[in-house]
Design brief:
The complex is a heterodimer of chains A (about 260) and B (about 775). With about 260 residues, chain A is an alpha+beta fold. Chain A has helices at about 10-20, 35-40, 75-80, 80-85, 90-95, 100-105, 110-115, 120-130, 140-145, 210-220, 225, 245-265, and strands at about 5-10, 25-30, 45-50, 60-65, 65-70, 130-135, 140, 145-150, 150, 160-165, 170-175, 185-195, 195-200, 210. Chain B is α+β, with helices and mostly antiparallel strands and about 775 residues long. The longest helix of chain B is centred in the C-terminal third of the chain and has 28 residues, at about 535-565.
């Protein structure tokens, strides 16, 4: 690990100020990706601005039609929240299956979303549940937020403060874990909002994406058979030594179908 | 000491200490003035070093030394230990490359050490290493063992023709050829055994300390055989062994891997001599993938000849075995020392094996749990299943016809094994019953309705354990009658402390709380080879038994003298004067033995004994595994549903520890069959699996309950009647799981599945079968 200056931000304004005042800063929001990267000497930020002490950034509330998760809320808290389990069980279940227990107790929703790791779970929840990413400066629709591989719409000085998930009529998330890393190779969130259906896929592409053809088919008839023969092209997908792009494309169809199966019982 | 007696399921004495963080691993040690070393490693698989500039690194903050190949060459130290003794096909000696701790002119694998930076902190050493400038002229490389021996392959060593390290022939070629000539049926298959890494929970590490005033070296390190290590390392350092102390603390797993004298051992000692300080190097997890020795990695072309009744007539095997880029003692042994497992538990009269060991631009190799045994077991047990399939005979029935019956023991197989005892058919029947083999087809049909392809697979494997060798033990009573037991073997987690305390407690009647166990320090332990090849219970256990026997013999004389009788009886720690009600405890006698007035005239003071046990005969643990698994038709994911084992490891010293060994071995076998693999880019020679993000390890959650029963058939080849248990699980698991996978897919015409059987590989097999 290279040396860096450590700052414990008092509040969001303080963090934002330090973000612009330092040379090459990084926000520390749990550090489940950042700290291993630093330890492997793959990044050398001049300053780390830790958001952990900002109590205002923690907590969950269920408001009219929305589950609001503050940015520094750990995954384990979301998973264990009775409110989330009641209002949006798919979200609690997704959070409860991120990484391992250590990751779930240290990692936060804001950190995960801001990182836009292609294999992270939360992006599928954000896009699938039509979430709004609220920052220190503005509100961004999840559809516009995830731009590419580890790339988001965030400006350098912008800090995520909360994520507001729309509560669907029903939703389900399923993932195929990577044989080595355990990350999602394919994670599919299917959510039904009245006549509208969202299908968001994480793990397979450079960042989370929706499958319009599946959404349309499910809006016509919400049944496993509707998606069973819809295949996403492997061309835009990623591959590695364990799971090729073609295999991931195949798994998207399987997991979309299984998610719908689970929803219709 | 009933509850601690031999055979009792005693919980491990070492666990409370280890579980509470009380372990003392290399990285837990610190010494005043200790410096930290970082190894700069080759980023290329094969390259000439055309320029190496360390001036900036030497001037960096905190840096005390930067060692390069020239420094090693000038140090007065020799090569790291090198393999020797084998021959090439024409009878000329094996190719034995020089093995300096730092490459000087050429690097030969990704990870080959190029420089060693020593600084006040590890961060300073890492920072400084980034300032070293190296220019490489990249050369073509070869990592595959199959390609490495082909004419025209890039040469790892310029003067080593076709990269051939050595050739080993075993068995009877003429008889085998004759058997094949009269065969009714011949089954042929090429089996590729993948390369894996030990992935020990504790990575390798060493602290070197050269004491200039005493002119003596101490190395604290991760190892398996402290005294052998001292012998080999002293030769490298060109010093008498008496000027070297080797200390192993707790060791977090080895499985054969840590048995080598690695480059970093030499580097911390040279660095300590140069700087005058103790120097520590501990591998990071990422580094371990590049710097540890790997295991397995060979290609077997096997042929089994049968008559029309399914009797095995002959077996012919050609192996290509990857040696990596350098060879140490032990690197080579996996290629030849366990070929005996190929003969299996079968009567096959004629066998011939032809092995070619090949250098490649890959990490050096070392034994890995089984060291040739699982590889050989995979070949014989897969080809037997293939034969069963081709002849339309049930795999259990085909095995049964060919099993060696007890009345033919001792049985000389077509290879090296001379099997002294075993009840193979009984074990087969027990396992089939435990597995409800007869009920399988109903379970398969039920699974099919759930979209799952269910398969059953068995293996019946045998290996050698405790090769001819020796082991030492010492039992020392102190003045108050408590005991220290010292062993030549070194535990890496197997539970030696528990087993040895059980033996001492059982034979001397001393409570385990009053027994201190000491190992791994060559200044304290007088004799022994160490750990490896499933030898400790057989040889180390026998050595402790001999030592306690000597103690009892002497103590009896003292007790008789003290009680004024000619002879005493000894049981449960108590000496009884015959026909009297007078008794003395072992502790009484031990205390008394410290005073001349209690001893018969001329008897030496004290109650201590050393023992050096040796055996000329190995033993043959064996067992039957049956596994049932389901493959998800849509995804190729495998779920193991049942796993049963009946083993024969002779007398069982501790059933709890035995289960641990079997389960651990199975886990590593399953890991290799389903997911683990070190992979190299075929063009660049880069390791593509350099972290746990890419190297898949089996987690506990994938295993079903593993049901284990023992059918002990005690061997007479050691004092305890035990057979080795450390490798048995791994040996049986690889082929059992492999056979179950093929069985699950056999209706699709599948006859073999390569390892690792990843979900994608299985999905592709199913997908292709559907398209065909």
């Amino acid at each position: 690990m290279h040396n860096f200056n450590y700052h414990r931000a008092a509040d969001v304004a303080d963090a934002a100020a330090k973000l612009t005042a330092t040379e090459d800063p990084k926000l520390l929001a749990g550090g489940m990706t950042l700290l291993p990267t630093l330890k492997n000497r793959l990044a050398a930020p001049s300053d780390l601005i830790d958001l952990a002490a900002i109590s205002d950034l923690k907590g969950i509330s269920v408001e009219s039609g929305e589950v609001v998760v503050r940015a520094m809320t750990p995954h384990a808290v979301v998973a264990a929240s009775a409110e989330v389990q009641k209002a949006l069980p798919a979200l609690a279940q997704l959070a409860g299956n991120i990484g391992d227990p250590a990751v779930r107790h240290r990692g936060t929703i804001g950190g995960s979303v801001a990182n836009s790791d292609p294999a992270a779970d939360y992006p599928a929840a954000c896009v699938g549940l039509d979430a709004t990413i609220v920052t220190s400066q503005r509100k961004i629709a999840a559809d516009d937020f995830f731009v590419g591989l580890f790339e988001t719409a965030l400006e350098p000085s912008e800090i995520i403060t909360e994520v507001r998930f729309q509560i669907p009529d029903r939703a389900y998330y399923m993932k195929f874990r990577h044989p080595a890393s355990g990350y999602a190779v394919v994670g599919v969130m299917v959510a039904q909002f009245g006549a509208k259906v969202r299908v968001a896929v994480t793990g397979a592409g450079p960042c989370v994406f929706r499958v319009a053809e599946m959404e349309a088919a499910l809006e016509k008839s919400f049944a496993p058979a509707s998606v069973a023969n819809i295949h996403v092209s492997a061309e835009q997908l990623m591959g590695d030594i364990h799971c090729s792009a073609a295999y991931r494309a195949h798994l998207i169809t399987v997991y979309a179908r299984r998610a719908v199966e689970a929803m219709v019982g | 000491m009933g509850e601690f007696a031999i055979g009792q399921p005693v919980t491990r004495f070492e666990d409370p200490r280890l579980l509470k963080g009380g372990g003392r691993y290399v990285d837990d040690l610190a010494f005043p003035g200790m410096l930290y070393g970082h190894v700069l490693r080759s980023p290329h698989a094969h390259a000439n070093i055309t320029r190496l500039d360390i001036s900036k690194a030497k001037a960096a903050p905190g840096v005390r030394a930067v060692l390069i190949g020239e420094d090693w060459a000038k140090s007065g130290y020799g090569d790291l230990p090198r393999a020797e003794g084998k021959k090439k096909r024409d009878g000329s000696p094996m190719y034995r490359p020089h093995f300096p701790a730092l490459a000087k002119v050429k690097v030969r694998y990704v990870g080959d050490p190029v420089a060693f930076v020593v600084a006040d902190t590890i961060e300073q050493a890492q920072d400084a290493a980034e300032l070293i400038e190296v220019d490489y002229d990249i050369l073509p490389s070869v990592t595959s063992v199959a390609l490495g021996s082909q004419p025209g392959a890039p040469l790892v060593w310029d003067d080593c023709e076709n990269n051939i390290c050595f050739v080993h022939l075993e068995g009877d070629k003429q008889a085998t050829d004759a058997a094949f000539a009269k065969a009714d049926h011949i089954v042929k298959k090429r089996f590729v055994i993948s390369r894996v890494t030990a992935a020990t929970m504790e990575t390798r590490g060493s602290i070197g300390h050269y004491d200039q005033a005493a002119d003596r070296y101490t190395i604290y390190t991760t190892l398996q055989r402290a005294l052998n290590f001292r012998e080999e390392l002293a030769e490298t350092l060109n010093i008498p062994e008496s000027r070297l102390r080797v200390v192993a603390g707790d060791i977090g797993g080895s499985f054969g891997m840590k048995s080598g004298v690695f480059n970093e051992v030499g580097l911390v000692l040279l660095a300590s001599k140069v700087t005058g300080h103790p120097v520590k190097w501990v591998s990071t997890r990422s580094e371990s993938f590049l710097a540890d020795a790997h295991g397995r990695d060979n290609v077997s072309d096997a042929e089994l000849a049968l008559d029309k009744n399914g009797m095995f007539l002959g077996l012919r095997v050609h192996n290509l075995v990857n040696m990596g880029s350098y060879t140490q003692p032990g690197t080579d042994s996996g290629a030849y020392s366990n070929l005996g497992t190929l003969a299996g538990v079968y009567l096959t009269p004629a066998i011939h094996v032809d092995v070619t060991a090949v250098y490649t631009n890959t990490n050096p190799m070392r034994p890995f749990r089984g060291n040739g045994r699982p590889e050989a077991a995979f070949v014989i047990e897969r080809i037997v299943d293939m034969a069963a399939d081709e002849l339309g005979i049930d795999p259990a029935e085909l095995r049964r016809r060919n099993l060696i019956p007890p009345e033919k023991m001792p049985f000389q197989t077509g290879l090296s094994f001379n099997i002294d005892c075993g009840e193979f058919e009984k074990i087969l029947d027990l396992t089939l019953e435990m597995a409800d083999y007869k009920g399988f087809e109903a379970r398969r049909a039920e699974a099919r309705k759930r979209g799952k392809l269910r398969g059953i697979g068995m293996s019946f494997t045998i290996e050698k354990a405790a090769s001819p060798g020796y082991e030492g033990a010492e039992v020392r009573f102190d003045r108050t009658g408590s005991v220290t037991v010292l062993a030549g073997s070194v535990t890496q987690g197997q539970g030696h402390e528990t087993i040895f305390k059980q033996i001492v407690s059982d034979t001397l009647g001393i409570h385990p709380d009053e027994i201190h166990y000491l190992q791994g320090d060559t200044d304290q332990v007088f004799f022994g080879e160490g750990t490896g090849g499933s030898r400790t219970a057989s040889l180390g256990g026998s050595a402790v038994t001999v030592a306690t026997g000597k103690v009892v013999d002497k103590a009896k004389k003292i007790a008789a003298h003290m009680m004024g009788v000619d002879e005493v009886d000894f049981a449960e720690g108590v000496f009884t004067a015959r026909q009297t009600n007078r008794t003395l405890s072992m502790k009484d006698v031990a205390r008394a033995a410290m005073s001349p007035k209690n001893l018969p005239q001329g008897m030496e003071l004290g109650l201590n004994a050393t023992a050096a046990y040796h055996t000329t005969k190995q033993n043959y643990p064996n067992g039957c595994h049956i596994v049932e698994l389901e493959i998800d038709e849509d995804t190729g994911q495998v779920e193991m549903d049942r796993y049963v084992v009946v083993d024969d490891v002779g007398n069982v010293l501790n059933p709890l520890l035995l289960k641990g060994q079997i389960i651990g071995g199975i886990s590593q076998g399953v890991g290799q069959m389903l997911m683990e693999q070190i992979r190299f880019d075929p063009t660049s020679g880069q390791n593509l699996t350099g972290s746990f993000m890419d190297y898949a390890m089996p987690h506990a959650e994938i295993f079903p309950h593993i049901d284990i029963k023992s059918n002990p058939v005690p061997t007479k080849t050691n004092l305890l009647g035990v057979k080795g248990a450390g490798e048995a699980g791994c040996v049986g698991a690889l082929p059992a799981v492999g056979n179950a996978l093929v069985d699950a897919l056999s209706h699709l015409g599948v006859t073999h599945v390569e390892m690792p059987a990843t979900p994608e590989r299985l999905w592709r097999i199913m997908d292709e079968a559907k398209r065909a």
